């Protein structure tokens, strides 16, 4: 409910503003330790990214409720935003976007970690699970760049707005695609953020969509094996429908004005 989200937001904001906050049956304040504020900035940013890789990965609709809080906190406490990006880029290099290259002297295990895979006892997580986590983090990022906390400064500029989404998409399309990964993340990003980008960039955005369909998808197809066609098929279908209907559907889970009355 909107009222619950406001309570959570106010509690985080109060904590970061140096006020005392009740949690787990005790009162805490960042002023209790000289590095208390820096520690809370770091852990909060880490937590937002973790929610992308876990909660949003499991329930895509959760992206906007987490995003609106993260965006509002970022606006009031810019340090959290800087650290959010740092954690995000470490956990999901594709959010930069960046495809790490295998350098001489780097072990395979270390390289897989650089690519964002979870590796425990030399065992690498399954591809499906990996793609789901990466999709969750990209979806959360795609939601954050388009929403603002509704109770903040109405004239306040978004701390990391849609222009960063346009930049991310442009940079992705300037890179050679990776099998499975590129199609999955492009689809996620466009599904969550395509409608907002279209509203802002209009004809320019349609040109980009056409470029993906006519130029970039054939490049993805060229490196995709028969067992990796699922994400590519979803991307092609999504693009085809959007271009045919000349519209991009509003994302699932987007918060409507009525939500804040709940």
TrEMBL record:
InterPro entries: GLE1, GLE1-like_sf. It holds the Pfam family GLE1. It is found in: Cytoplasm; Nucleus, Nuclear pore complex. One of its GO terms (cellular component) is cytoplasm. The keyword Nucleotide-binding does not apply. Keywords: Coiled coil, Cytoplasm, mRNA transport, Nuclear pore complex, Nucleus, Protein transport, Translocation, Transport. One of its GO terms (molecular function) is inositol hexakisphosphate binding. One of its GO terms (biological process) is protein transport. Belongs to the GLE1 family. Required for the export of mRNAs containing poly(A) tails from the nucleus into the cytoplasm. May be involved in the terminal step of the mRNA transport through the nuclear pore complex (NPC). This is mRNA export factor GLE1. It comes from Hemiprocne comata.
